[in-house]
Amino acid sequence: MTEFEHVTVLLNEAVDNLNIKADGIYVDCTLGGGGHSRKILEQLGPKGHLYAFDQDQTALDYNQENLRDWLVAKKLTLIKSNFQQLKQKLAEHGVSHVDGVLYDLGVSSPQFDVAERGFSYRQDAILDMRMDQSQALTARKIVNEWSYGELVRIFTRYGEEKFTKSIARQIERKRQEEEIQTTGQLVELIKAGIPAKARRKGGHPAKKVFQALRIAVNNELGVLEDSLGQALSLLNPHGRISVITFQSLEDRLVKTMFKEKTSLPELPRGLPVIPSELELEYRLVNRKPITPNQAELEANHRAHSAKLRVIEKV
After folding, report:
1. Residue 116 domain flag
2. Structural contact between residues 228 and 101, judged by C-beta atoms closer than 8 angstroms
3. Domain-embedded: residue 305
4. In a domain, 1, yes or no
């Protein structure tokens, strides 16, 4: 079996909040190490089914063995696809409505830990960062070919980096001399673009730029917004969506989309009855995000930024 060590974050909270029905149809949009999928499958009866998406072949190969019993029992379908194709891929399996959808966003531990994938600023490797290894756009291409203005835009928007312009200038100067090929080279350029005093606080100096590149390479925010809209339209009455985010941009997007679906438009004062066409289709299951408990935080340092938000179709 392919090695795929991954500690699932907010495992019980995310699945419990789906309110699993034994005969329900569920979707795990981010299969990864299969932790959430296994927890869902354990609660399904003979008529229940889970469709699990992942664009990373490593995850699919691993779960052919890891979740073999449910595959053999025909209770699980693995789908190699970006979850942006959620509706289309489910339709190919004759599915037009579901009882629950789960998203565990961000990069799985194996993607971070396998140096050759080029996600980590702590290990020197070729700049890559593709979740789908068959796509053309890589971090190396962005760093070497995108304009100074485009680099400033993504480092600011997706990384919320303060020293964006000086970092982009360092990259621009270096690539005129030679191609920037590795994560190690990029880390040194980022450090050179950040004042020494600022480098000494707030975690690894390359963290924000690497996050920005990963989001840009995989179009993570655009894909999430599109997919989440599809998931909301697929829900049966009382169906739920659980979304785990690991950074503020994703969390803000999920929070905004859920708020739009669960808030009435501004109504005239003194309106005695809300018109039926304005009655809300969805409700927030938790007003504030659910976060990991102390035991989970101590056991898994990657859980620290995790937030879970849940919405239900009423």
Report:
1. no
2. no
3. yes
4. no
The string of DSSP letters for 52-72 reads EEES-HHHHHHHHHHTHHHHH
| Helix, strand or coil, per DSSP, at residue 252 | helix
C-alpha dist (Å) from residue 282 to 83, 233, 261, 278, 285? 22, 11, 6, 12, 9
Q: Give the 3-state secondary structure percentages of the chain, helix then strand then coil, rounded to 5.
A: 45, 15, 40
Q: Report residue 2's pLDDT band, with 50, 70 and 90 as the boundaries.
A: very low
Q: What is the CATH number of the domain that holds 133?
A: 1.10.150.170
Query: pLDDT tens for residues 193-212?
Result: 999 999 988 889 999 999 99
Domain count, the chain: 2
Structural domain boundaries enclosing 132: 122-218
Query: Residue 2: inside a domain, yes or no?
Result: no
Which amino acids are annotated as binding site for S-adenosyl-L-methionine, given as ranges? Answer: 34-36, 54, 83, 104, 111
Q: Residue ranges for the binding site?
A: 34-36, 54, 83, 104, 111
Structure tokens at 146: 């995108």
Please name the amino acid found at residue 55: Q
pLDDT tens digits, one per residue of 141-152: 999 999 999 999
